[in-house]
Amino acid sequence: MKRKLRSGMSSGLLAIAVCAALHSPPSMAARDAQTILKETCQGCHTPEANNGLSRISHQRKTPEGWLMSIARMQTMHGLQISDEDRRTLVKYLADTQGLAPSETDGVRYALERRLNTIEHFDDQTSQMCGRCHSGARVALQRRPAQEWERLVNFHLGQWPSLEYQAQARDRDWFDIARKDMVPLLAKRYPLENQAWNKWLKTAPKADSLAGDWSFSGQLPGKGELAGVMTVSADGTDQFKVSVKGQYADGSPFNGEGSAILYTGYEWRGNVTIDGVVMRQVFAAKGSELQGRMFEADHDERGLDFIAAKQGSSRLLAVQPGYLKAGSETEVTLIGSGLQGKPSFGKSVEVVEVIEQSPERLRVKLKAAADAKPGLRDVTVGSLKGATLAVYSNIAEVKVVPEFSVARIGEGGGSTPKVQGRFDAEAWGKGADGKPYRIGVFPAQWKVEAFDDRAKEDEDVKFAGQMQADSGVFTPGDAGPNPQRKMSTNNAGNLKVIAAVDDAGKSLTGEGHMIVTVQRWNNPPIP
């Protein structure tokens, strides 16, 4: 079942806490975690064998998950804890009771704040859990059966009207949760897992991440970028970060900041890029960093990020990643350890090597006029891992994301607007007749009323403005609008249209965007 990722129940304190607790290194003078657990937590959580505490010792979570638990203790149970102690606890618990890299596969979109993701869970999980918060929030924690049952009881104890709300009253929610969901979750997400036990023994040392990293990225509405991120150790599991790069249009992508490593691979950074504070949520896997960077105040303004440590051998990306049959163009290969002759597959000729270094290889390519459309494997010496799309014509244009949520804001209030940000993906048909992705193309953008009701309510006029050349939609102001029927707010139901030019022929793609009200609750895991 497909379900839209969205924010769930939580306190506004969590949005502030995630910035302070996950992206700021703890002070060297901070109390040790065992002392904090004993003096701060033991009043409610009873001691158990092996220095364990009830409830706490029977769960494993991501850094964001532990932060949410501690913040909930503060807002709902009156826990008194300093920011410094909270940071120390999150670090300790994530390191000792976290998730192995394989346990977060497939659901990292929630940690990376990809809030327009369409989730894919079974119907039972989607209906019992995913109606109020993301399924990823469930999938990013581990518990034994008894703790999953206590979580069910917690839901009903904390929200006594849960069974009578629209999201649950179509079923015997409590009975199904206890009898069906508890055994399902205990089997799917158990506390004891071989992957976690193995990771505790084999996790690499944090200082292995120090060095220069060649990176590639892509920001919707702006385009591709590349550069070098320099990481230097600044204490145990802490780093100083310097970024120097640029977009394909030549504009800079430079900045500095800090980062901290949780669980041996969960990288959380706080970097100011050209005056804008951005968060880094990456997974460190050997000589690779991959994840997302996004603005601290606007998580919708983010870019995909992948990096390879210099000294390793890795081909990360080809920019741009497409070439029209019968034409010439310059492309840049990004990676680390780029040595040897580049090859772009059948019917693609390397006309000239313009620039070559271990991190960057710029070449002029020419595709034969009769080159068959499809993807070509790109190699540099023995390195593989990237593709080049060769096309003769565009068969289809897709708006990405296909479905998006934007939110009104400001208008005298403190809640910022949440933009809609789109790319136009060109798709072709290969020699075998199967569709393949060519890449992101420049487009002209506009919005239209999605249906008759949206047309009648003049949603295009009031909901916001689309930048015609970038695919960035900025919603209207929050609050009642006296110009609208019944003075309603500036919400809207819009069709997003991208027009791509292919040798004088205009092809269009369509997406769907809901412009809705402010996101009042913004927890680290939605």
Question: What is this structure's SSE topology?
Answer:
Blueprint: E1 2-4, H1 13-22, H2 33-41, E2 47-48, E3 52-53, E4 60-61, H3 63-77, H4 83-96, H5 101-104, H6 108-111, E5 118-120, H7 123-128, H8 135-139, E6 141-142, H9 145-158, H10 173-188, H11 194-202, E7 211-219, E8 223-233, E9 238-247, E10 252-262, E11 266-273, E12 276-285, E13 288-295, E14 302-309, E15 314-319, E16 322-324, E17 328-336, E18 342-343, E19 348-356, E20 360-367, E21 374-380, E22 383-391, E23 396-400, E24 403-407, E25 420-421, E26 423-429, E27 435-441, E28 444-449, H12 452-456, H13 459-462, E29 464-466, E30 472-475, E31 492-502, E32 505-516
Parallel strand pairs: 16-22, 24-32
Antiparallel strand pairs: 1-5, 2-3, 4-6, 7-8, 7-14, 8-9, 9-10, 10-11, 11-12, 12-13, 13-14, 15-17, 17-20, 18-21, 19-20, 21-22, 23-26, 25-30, 26-27, 28-31, 29-30, 31-32
